[in-house]
Amino acid sequence: MTDIAILVGTESGNAQMVADTLQEVLEALSHEVTLHEEPEADVVDLANRDVMIISCATHGDGELPDNIIPFCDYLKETKPDLSHIRYGIVALGDQTYHQTFCQAGKDVDAILASCGAVRIGERFEVDACTQPLPDEDARDWVKDWVELL
Ligand SMILES: Cc1cc2nc3c(=O)[nH]c(=O)nc-3n(C[C@H](O)[C@H](O)[C@H](O)COP(=O)(O)O)c2cc1C
């Protein structure tokens, strides 16, 4: 059993829906899950955290959703040592935004890596154009991902 934090970056709810599904699948596999809909570094308790998944949409022109900006700013400004953390990324986007497809998820990935955290598996990118059921796709992804821990 693994204790897993899921952090959400969303504007209109898709990344939240994905996070809810990830939680459901992981709990059915007997993992302990804490969902952070408004991620705050101290509440996430990064110093004592081993495993995280970030479910993050992209908005604006390749920008982070508002609710996850403070968390990312904290990481960029304080650069905590997160080398004890393993994480997965679900990046939601839309390929019609050619230049900025899933940019926020890519940015969160880069920020965590810059703090020494280690990504497990490939970033899972969800295209709203071709994947109309992101939660179903994420369900399959997380079953494989959790096996890599
Ligand atoms: C105003 C707006 C701007 C967007 N900008 C981007 C973008 O720059 N890159 C991208 O890949 N997707 C972009 N998207 C697509 C969203 O990331 C996608 O619809 C996602 O599923 C939304 O997730 P959410 O409901 O959790 O916010 C944008 C969507 C909207 C409505």
Structure in words:
The longest helix has 15 residues. The protein contains five helices and six strands, in the order E-H-E-H-E-H-E-H-E-E-H. The protein is α/β, with parallel strands linked by helices and 149 residues long. Flavin mononucleotide (FMN) binds next to helix 1 and strand 4. Flavin mononucleotide binds next to helix 1 and strand 4.
Order of helices and strands: EHEHEHEHEEH
CATH topology: Rossmann fold
Kindly state the number of beta strands.
6
List the ligand species.
flavin mononucleotide
Topology:
Blueprint: E1 3-9, H1 14-28, E2 32-36, H2 41-44, E3 51-57, H3 69-78, E4 86-93, H4 103-114, E5 118-119, E6 124-127, H5 134-147
Parallel strand pairs: 1-2, 1-3, 3-4, 4-5, 4-6
Helix pairs in contact: 1-5
The structure holds flavin mononucleotide.
Flavin mononucleotide (FMN) binds next to helix 1 and strand 4.
Question: What labels would you give this structure?
Answer:
37% helix, single chain, 149 residues, alpha/beta, Rossmann fold, binds flavin mononucleotide
Structure summarized in a few sentences:
With 149 residues, the chain is of the alpha/beta class. It is 37% helix and 22% strand. The protein has one domain (3-147): 3-Layer(aba) Sandwich (Rossmann fold).
